[in-house]
Amino acid sequence: MSKIDRRDFLKGCGVAAIAAGSSSRAFAYVAPPDIGPAAATNDTLVIVFLRGAMDGLSLLPPGASSPYRADYVAARSNTIIPVSGTGAALPLNGTTWALHPRASKLRDLYNQNRLAFIVGAGQAQPIPVIRSHFDAQANLEFGFGGGTGNNVGWLTRHLISGGLPAVVPLPATSFGSITSSSLLGSSDAITMASASDYRLDGFHWSWDDVDQDVPGLVGAVSRMNSLWNGNATLLESAGVETLASLDLLRPINFGLYHATNNPGGYQPTGGANYDIEYNQDFADQLRNIAQIIKLNLGMRIATIDLGSWDTHVGQGNPTQSYDWFGNMVSSLSDGLSAFYTDLASSGAGNLMNKTSVIVVSEFGRRVQENADSGTDHGYGNVMLALGGSVNGGQVYGSIPGLGTAQLYQGTDVAVTTDYRRIISEALIRRMANPNIYYVFPGYSGYTPMGVFQGPDLPPVGYDQIFAHGFEGPG
Fold it and tell me: Is 208 exposed, middle or buried (0-12, 13-18, 19+ CB in 10 A)?
């Protein structure tokens, strides 16, 4: 007798749902088996990935009174963030850490107790440490603590185990040209670089036409459903699901409001300004996420990237006219500030109370700058948590120090907080998913750090019963 694993078992149970019209939760007509918690929350989790390895010691440098300041100054000259004069770091209340001067809007959120920093954060596994961008990003997004496992992302495992309702119009969105690896393997996620472009309008002029004066003239877009009306194959199922997503988003005007050119466009609230000086695509995608959240389409997960943090050469500093790193920080600060302001001032109430943002990078940079006025690949880094249900205004975690003897392998900031601990706390306290040991195979010993508000649930791994198939481990 052949063994049956949990996934095959659930596929069998879901045959009726597939035949009814969709294999995904997004548009399933028959409820899938109850495999998760009794009820998920309606919160949205946004993962911002700073690709390229952001230099945490430049975003959050030791302040003037920090015991780490002397070692930091000894290691940095062309990349140093000063604590006085031109380009001085911004002091943070209640801590000896400071903030890059071009992150003033992040400091405002910190002072409002809505933004928290976690130092010494990173990938505690595997050992030896991964220093390749590609491998480290994959390791972080697949969440196995080493390797890519079965090439299913940790967010996909969250969606599987998170107890979402049977029908959710838009469970997850990956913003970018390709699907985030953390969402690979999911039929619940759609991928788009821009919400405005997520449509099939590049056709003949009559693509969208419906002319009652011409019998039988129907826009070509409406004919697509007849081409994808079956579920005999995975390709047909994917076609049906894609058309359903297109039908959902196509009527929405994602363009920015303009009184003359686009009077039906989106109007951010609270004075939120998504017009930023650098990396406009990042701000536009944040605006799209905010609009989707306001439309209450059920989006529980969104991923978004901000790249170009790989600063081996010419990293810059705020005392120079050329400040590449500062430009990146400005984009992050201004974009997140606009996003928070927009959702916090929604006509439906403060939607940031149900939205949590986690900012992460694959690893940090070396403490000692290099000869090219840059920094090389390191280890420990800084994570950010933003939201109305974040216990902000604090810097969490600690590091042994920045002296050579206190650094990991004598060169890097040590990792003292596993990135999975922070994410697990968000999944449990904000998303009501206790199945973190399923989401992150190989992770254990979770305890909350207190970054997020919400009730605690005992951490578990829900599908262990199927780990060896129905026949057991023998």
Answer: middle
* Amino acid identity, position 99: L
Q: Is the dihedral of CA 211, 214, 215, 217 positive or negative?
A: negative
Question: 161-190: per-residue pLDDT in tens?
Answer: 999 988 888 999 999 999 999 999 998 899
Q: What is the per-residue pLDDT across 105-151, written as a single tens digit (0 to 9) for each?
A: 999 999 999 999 999 999 999 988 999 999 999 999 999 988 778 88
- Asked if 432 contacts 132 with a C-beta cutoff of 8 angstroms, the reply is no
Q: What's the CA angle centered on 326, arms 324 and 329, to 5 degrees?
A: 115
Give the pLDDT mean for 338-360.
98
Distances from the Cα of 355 to the Cα of 165, 270, 301, 331, 346, angstroms: 18, 17, 10, 20, 12
124: left (phi over 0), alpha (psi -120 to 50) or beta: alpha
- List C-alpha distances in Å: 78 to 65, 98, 313, 426, 465: 21, 18, 11, 37, 55
C-alpha 171, offset from chain centre:
14
The verdict on pTM exceeding 0.85 is yes
Q: Could you give the CA distance from residue 73 to residue 298 in angstroms, rounded to a whole number?
A: 48
Euclidean distance between CA atoms 217 and 89, whole angstroms: 64
Compute the distance between CA of residue 11 and CA of residue 32 in angstroms, rounded to an integer. 10
Strand partners of residue 99: 90
